[in-house]
Amino acid sequence: MNIQNNNFYLEIKELLHSAKNRVYQTINTTMTQTYFQIGKKIVEEEQGGETRAEYGSALLKNLSSELMREFGKGYSEQNLKNMRQFYLVYQKRQTVSSEFKLSWSHYIFLTRIENINERNFYEIESIENSWSLRELKRQFNSGLFERLSLSSDKQKTKELSSQGQIIQKAQDLIKDPYILEFVGLHELSSYSESELEQKLIDKLEHFLLELGKGFTFVARQKRITIDEKHFKVDLVFYNRLLKSFVVIDLKIGELKHQDIGQMMMYVNYFDRYEKTEDENSTIGIILCKDKSKALVELTLPKDNNQIYASKYLTILPNKEEFKKLLEEE
Predict the structure, then answer these.
(1) SS3 category, 192
(2) In whole angstroms, what is the distance from residue 178 CA to residue 176 CA?
(3) Per-residue confidence band for 226, with pLDDT thresholds at 50, 70 and 90
(4) Nearest residue to 145 (alpha-carbon basis) of 125, 127, 129, 128
(5) How far apart are CA 26 and CA 159, in angstroms?
(6) In terms of pTM, does the model score above 0.85?
């Protein structure tokens, strides 16, 4: 098979894969819309029938038996309850679209989020970033909405619920803390910065998801030379939305003012020698185990919009623990 024929077959295969994905998406959307309508019918029947709780229970039980007999086990009593809840939650569509673009499993999970602003945010982000159900649950459990809301005013928080995360300036992509439970280092009593770096590289796909939108990996241990002295930047990324380099330094202990000074040097170097005229200023992020806000504020200039210090966690807290953690910040 020559190269030309090989490309021909690859193009045909790509067309078929694309068609299958579109068919799957169409089926998925149609079934989700159908479940919404079934939920609506159940609610209307309950409201039009007897008000006793026993009536609603018997209605679902009998309906489940009838549907399972003809359509299979996908219509269990519990699934019918999910459809009813789905309708009750989404009957007034306050989301990015009037269509249901996610899987049924996504929506079952979303209906359990009581805060409507938070629920809308996760629906938008799931659609825009093609999150799997597993990734949606991870982002929710890691408190992404709270982390982005923490450093935002009320108007910005409102925008998160109606538009999702919009990256327009450096501060829009910064999280504090970053959740790095996927590296598996919580099982170790101690580890080095090089071990943390290696784990992040090993789990690069997970780390890119945690960093957020628009990130691409550039280099690790990027060597820079100043007056014949050599330095190495732990990790270098590029954010295509901001058109900026993002340099990351890892600190496993408490952040010191010398660490901030070193990051200022890295950022200045990239601004002067790496970035092009059409690119924006370099962003520096110091990921540290602990930090003093006062030290960071006093070390950085008042008008700083390039260098940020954020904590990282290697354990995924439960939702309530995470809220308490954010309140302490």
Answers:
(1) coil
(2) 6
(3) confident
(4) 125
(5) 29
(6) no
Q: What separation, in Å, do the N-terminal and C-terminal C-alpha atoms of the chain show?
A: 62
Residues with Cβ < 8 Å from 311, sequence gap 6 or more? 176, 177, 178, 287, 288, 289, 290, 291
Identify which of 260, 235, 231 has the alpha carbon closest to the alpha carbon of residue 245. Answer: 235
**Continuous segment of H or E residues that includes residue 144:** helix 144-150
Give every CB contact of residue 212 below 8 A, 6+ residues apart in sequence: 165, 167, 173, 175
Helix axes 193-202, 204-211, angle to 10 degrees: 90
Per DSSP, the residues of 236-301 read: EEEETTTTEEEEEEEEEEE--HHHHHHHHHHHHHHHHHTS-TTSPPPEEEEEEEE--HHHHHHHS-
| Residue scoring higher pLDDT (8 or 286) | 286
Peptide bond into 317 cis (omega under 30): no
Tens digits of residue pLDDT in 137-179 = 999 988 888 888 765 556 666 778 778 888 888 888 888 889 9
